[in-house]
Amino acid sequence: MDNMTLDQIIAATTVMPVIVVDDVATAVPLARALVAGGIRTLEVTLRTPAALDAIRTIKAEVPEAILGAGTITTPQQLDAAIAAGAAFGVSPGSSPRLLQAIQASGLPFLPGVMTPSEALVALEAGFTVQKFFPAVPAGGVKVLDAIRGPFPELRFCPTGGISLQTAPDFLRLPNVVCIGGSWLTPKAAVAAGDWAEITRLAQEAAALRG
Known about the structure:
Elements: H1 6-11, E1 15-19, H2 27-36, E2 41-45, H3 51-61, E3 66-70, H4 75-84, E4 88-90, H5 96-105, E5 109-110, E6 112-113, H6 116-124, E7 129-132, H7 140-147, E8 155-158, H8 167-171, E9 179-181, H9 187-192, H10 195-206
Parallel strand pairs: 1-2, 1-9, 2-3, 3-4, 4-5, 6-7, 7-8
């Protein structure tokens, strides 16, 4: 799934699971369970020491997955994610230094923003698709709807605090192209190796846009 554009990556998903891998041994069965449920675009967050190894392993063993790295906050992490084989990247926030590194890398990327000023900075850097984070604490649907006025060209992947029940409210917005969700990979199910439950949750999420 290399050399995909950001538009192609987004078009392949409705919900992007936000994945935290504590044990690399769970990475492949978890990815396979999500793909089996119809969720192919996966974001493995760089929040644990196992994350980069998880990306390498999933890339090698689950080639049908469109695999990205999340929680990228530094140019060094960006380089490490690319070296591990990530097809796209996601950040929780943006800085001029990070945006410059992303531009230079050519990696399809969702830079994180929360305020109109941050959205404008990312837009001026050339990013018309952005991650809105943390979505629910930052005002959720009402804020995204209000942003449409001054920023009609922007599209968002809201992430943070969204559930299966609230996801349709976000997806109905014309400036929302997909959403990020951690509910697809609950820690208890992953720890128990309950891959059937992960697949069930993925099927529910994949059906949100019919």
